[in-house]
């Protein structure tokens, strides 16, 4: 009977030879992950260094080839660093095309700015959950909770790829404690503040600036649509004339403006998530703002809100103009509900979500904002109403009116004559219709 084959990824007998110059030579047979037996030889100053070199040669002997994407870097080995695996993951993720370019940019920045400087030197074969957990704690203390959460999420995806290619034995990131972002108060304009905001913006728009050209109505129209629909700023900037049904007083949300280094500024042909494509109603004021912004002289593919050359508008440019208005008009002094907070386009989206949730319910707000779950709307977009519905008081009145109060004699028997006699020494109040005393 023949000798049984070695299990995969297993060494056979390793022969050790001590050379005349004091170095150590190792010869061994290794059955690789592809099932082939291969012989390797390594020389080192000590047996330990020679063994490490022998294992390195074995790991690099059968690189995993990705034929569909020949420009990808070589797959790391177990002896590679976390930096090599992280950079390989970024390349693979970009080639697969499953994530949006702007999402890949975010992950790549986390790899470049946080993971590589802090964890990039660690060897994959020497990683432990404790090492990752301690570094996440340091990131949380020295940088921010947000950075720690992004790092943990990115590492989790990187280690998933490592498991797929058998470079790590576990997902060291998911084994660490989940990092939770502290609950933040929902910042939204209260009743009356939206009108104050738009009136101030209108006055600022039509006022003659101290220098430079007159201001356009772009910011005024964009903010009006935001307050009238609750859309994301990118969705507003992606609206085309064909998306508006003026007869039905509604608008189709089917795209958003996004930016990534690899693609530049582009109109993404679906909202943040594809399932969020929807028709939403248009209030009269928002409809008038869209009508005012449409330029019929431009091609139909041009967005309603566009640059002077007819190109796409970047969200950051709108935010910068909004900050200029806030600084020059001092409007924040008039808005008591957001005093001390930042006023952004997303604040207006939360204002809409809060108003709709309070008047029509959280489910209506969820449908308008395009969320999948009511919990998302309630947790991040609908500011809780500090005033409980007054009708609750009337409901409780009915409850109490239907509850029979005990009679004096029943109270006497329940408390006991001795207890009441002690109280009567201090307070003596006659109870009508009873021979007993009432406290």
Give an overview of the whole structure.
With 439 residues, the protein is mainly alpha-helical. Helix content is 45%, strand content 11%. The protein contains 16 helices and ten strands. A three-stranded antiparallel β-sheet has the order 1-2-3, with helices on one face. It has a three-stranded antiparallel β-sheet with strand order 4-5-8, with no helix packed on it. Strand 2 (24-31) and strand 3 (37-44) form a beta hairpin. Helix 2 (82-96) runs antiparallel to helix 3, helix 7 packs antiparallel against helix 9 (284-293) and helix 11 packs antiparallel against helix 12. The longest helix has 20 residues, at 145-164.
What is the topology?
Layout: E1 10-18, E2 24-31, E3 37-44, H1 47-61, H2 82-96, H3 101-119, H4 129-142, H5 145-164, H6 193-206, H7 218-229, H8 233-237, E4 244-245, E5 250-253, E6 256-260, E7 264-268, E8 278-281, H9 284-293, H10 315-329, H11 345-360, H12 362-369, H13 374-380, H14 391-401, H15 408-415, H16 417-424, E9 429-430, E10 437-438
Antiparallel strand pairs: 1-2, 2-3, 4-5, 5-8, 6-7, 9-10
The string of secondary-structure elements, in order, is EEEHHHHHHHHEEEEEHHHHHHHHEE
Shape: extended
What distance lies between the first and last C-alpha atoms, to the nearest angstrom? 102 Å
> What class would the helix/strand composition place it in?
mainly alpha
Identify the notable features of this structure and list them briefly.
439 residues; mainly alpha; three-stranded antiparallel beta sheet; 10 strands; disordered C terminus
In short:
The chain is mainly α. Helices cover 45% and strands 11% of the residues. The strands form four sheets. It has a three-stranded antiparallel β-sheet, with helices on one face. A three-stranded antiparallel β-sheet has the order 4-5-8, with no helix packed on it. The chain has a two-stranded antiparallel sheet with strand order 6-7.
